[in-house]
Write a structure and sequence with these properties.
- By secondary structure, this protein is mainly β.
- A 4-stranded antiparallel sheet has the order 2-3-4-10, with no helix packed on it. A 3-stranded antiparallel sheet has the order 1-12-11, with no helix packed on it.
- About 5% of the residues lie in helices and about 45% in strands.
- Strand 11 and strand 12 form a beta hairpin.
- The protein has a single domain, classed as Rieske [2Fe-2S] iron-sulphur domain (Rieske Iron-sulfur Protein).
- The structure holds FE2/S2 (inorganic) cluster.
- The site of FE2/S2 (inorganic) cluster has 8 residues, from loops.
Length: about 120
């Protein structure tokens, strides 16, 4: 099980090697999540229309290793954009992947950019 988790590592804009096009802006729902695949990874993508920001993170919830985060409710906690896992409602920051509930479970996050109506996610491989 831990092997599945190992492939997810946070990528910052400075260590992007590949900007992978995942579709057009209109392919994604507003204010909720969708799931895309990159190599063996499942990645959740969220479009926050109120702030005009996009976020991406691993789809795998590290609590019970369920591929569910793209189905989670999104929102913010004191200004930090977050997703709540649909299973047991753990809240993860979409900025740094930390668990806003305080325990040490963490998720990997990925940069997203929009160019000419296309959505790209940054990967380090
Ligand atoms: S599986 Fe996500 S909070 Fe339990």
């Amino acid at each position: 099980m831990q092997d599945i988790l190992k492939q997810y590592e946070t990528v910052s804009e400075t260590n992007v090697k590949t900007w992978f096009r995942v579709g057009e802006v209109n392919d994604f729902p507003q204010n909720s999540g969708a799931c895309i695949k990159y190599k063996t990874k499942q990645i959740a993508v969220y479009n926050f229309t109120r702030t005009d920001k996009w976020y991406a993170c691993q789809n795998l919830c590290p609590h019970k290793m369920e591929m569910v985060l793209s189905l989670g409710m999104i929102g913010d906690k004191e200004g930090i954009p977050k997703v709540a896992c649909p299973m047991h409602k753990k809240n993860f920051s979409l900025e740094d992947g930390s668990n806003l509930g305080g325990d040490d479970l963490k998720i990997a996050t990925y940069p997203v950019k929009i160019e000419n109506g296309n959505v790209y996610i940054g990967f380090s491989d």
